[in-house]
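quick one, 36 residues, struct below
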Amino acid sequence: MATAQSTYLGSLRCENLHLQSGTRIHTDAPTDNQGM
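---
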């Protein structure tokens, strides 16, 4: 059973959703990989 869902939003940004709580976390690529 999955506990989280990850979606690539483009421009090296992802959104991670914790399915049980509905909490969303946004992440960017590290700066050494042209992230923010």
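Residues 4-33 form one domain.
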